[in-house]
Amino acid sequence: MIPDLIRKQIRQGEGVNTEFMSDARQPEAIAKTVCAFLNTRGGTVFCGVNVHGEVVGIEGAPDTIHSLHAYLLDSITPKALFTVNVDDEDGTSVLSIEVPEGKDRPYVVAGSVYVREGGRTRMADAVRLRDMVQFQAVAAERWERRPSMAMEENDLDFDEVQRTAQQAKVSGRFVFAADGDAIAILHALAVYTTKGFTQAADVLFAKNPALRHPQTRVRVTRFASDKEGDAYLDDRLLQGPLVKVFEQAFDMLSQHVHWEATFQPGALRRTDLPEYPFEALREGLVNAFAHRDYSGFSGGVAVGVYSDRIEIWNSGHFPEGLKPGDLNKNHPSLPTNPDIAHVFHLRGLMERIGRGGQLIINACRDHGLPPPRWADRPTGVTLTIFGRRGRPAALWAANPRQQAMLLQIGCGDLIRPGDYHQRFASEVSDRQARRDPS
């Protein structure tokens, strides 16, 4: 099924962040547009959508996705983070390439640099190219790309490196030329350079990166009530290679999720549903690992499981210009740690770059839960996912029409009185709908 968020972006038409192509038979043109998105503000290429925004589909999508992904990886330098996905509905397939804004500009295809202007891809002129090179020259090297001064080869968890290569190969997301050579694999992932291991290599593939980076430890706590500071039922501090710690944290989180048994009217069998949608919990945890600030020793990731909600905190911040209310809309993807995010993607833990917020919001809505909340404070970002017992007081005080609206609109969304009447209050008069307090 083609997700609503994809349909919504297609309906908005082509623009600086969106390109339509009727098919995927021109990989060179697709590579130029992906390169342009990397060099500008990110975006999405849709294959199987014509210039009028009509979904026409592509043939042979499963084979196309692997060949196109491999072509883009080989043709664009330096190596970049992007995702290629196929959505299918009634036999019609749409292929989407989702590209975040690149952090290692300029990116090059076939010896040329491309940028995005309006809804067009064009070759960068001398002035634009000079600006990119100068900006890159003065930009501070991001934490994950800095050399890990204390990591040595005997610190490496070779099994974790091999698992990454194997999972990438099975998923078709990447095939390493020397999949038996750990150092060659790390070099292909841009986490091993002429200066040695990078910080990203350390936190991703060292046996115990917490020896050098104590902030990589993750705390998962199950509280006895809905108040922080009360007695807790479980409290663990996890450490090790980043993906292993993520898997341990998610397994622990899953164990604390209650299951609810319900009987639908007229049904003979009960339906068991988890209290929280696992896809929302997984995506929230992935985002915390991939987008947090790793540079400070006081940073980290912490998960609190309460009787009425789950809170996931990380020591990062929203990118400049992006607010929590923007997460329910199409917005530029600005990954804080693209090298770390790339490994999570290869391991099958990140499906769509830049869509995590929308996925969490939609999963909570489909599960019948209140909208999740993000809070960006000086100490970091906290995502709160409410259970059925954790509905905000304002929701209970609202009438049924308002409750329906609050459960469906996203954080920061605005709704006009006429739309409210049509979508949620059609059974009452326009005057009564306008009387409902906002």
How would you describe the overall organization of this protein?
The chain is α+β, with helices and mostly antiparallel strands and 438 residues long. The chain has 4 domains: 4-139, Methyltransferase, Cobalt-precorrin-4 Transmethylase, Domain 2, CATH 3.30.950; 145-211, no CATH class; 214-391, Heat Shock Protein 90, CATH 3.30.565.60; 393-438, no CATH class. The protein is built from 15 helices and 18 strands. It has helices at 4-11, 27-39, 61-75, 126-138, 158-171, 182-188, 199-205, 242-255, 278-291, 338-346, 356-366, 393-397, 400-408, 417-424, 430-435; strands at 18-21, 43-47, 76-77, 83-89, 92-99, 108-109, 114-117, 120-123, 192-193, 196-197, 218-223, 232-238, 259-262, 271-274, 301-305, 309-314, 373-377, 380-386. The longest helix has 15 residues, at 61-75. The mean pLDDT is 89.
Q: TL;DR of this structure?
A:
The protein contains 15 helices and 18 strands. With 438 residues, it is α+β, with helices and mostly antiparallel strands. The strands form six sheets. It has a six-stranded mixed sheet with strand order 12-11-15-16-18-17, covered by helices on one side. A four-stranded mixed sheet has the order 1-2-5-4.
Dominant shape = globular
| Cross-sheet strand order for the largest sheet | 12-11-15-16-18-17
Main β-sheet description? 6 strands, mixed
Query: Which CATH architecture of the largest domain would you pick?
Result: 2-Layer Sandwich
What name does CATH use for the topology of the largest domain?
Answer: Heat Shock Protein 90
Kindly state the percentage of residues in helix.
Answer: 25-40%
Number of strands: 18
Compute the separation of the termini in Å.
34 Å
Overall tally of domains: 4
Low-confidence stretches: none
Strand content: 15-25%
Cα-atom radius of gyration: 23 Å
CATH class of the largest domain equals Alpha Beta
Compute the average pLDDT.
89
Number of helices: 15
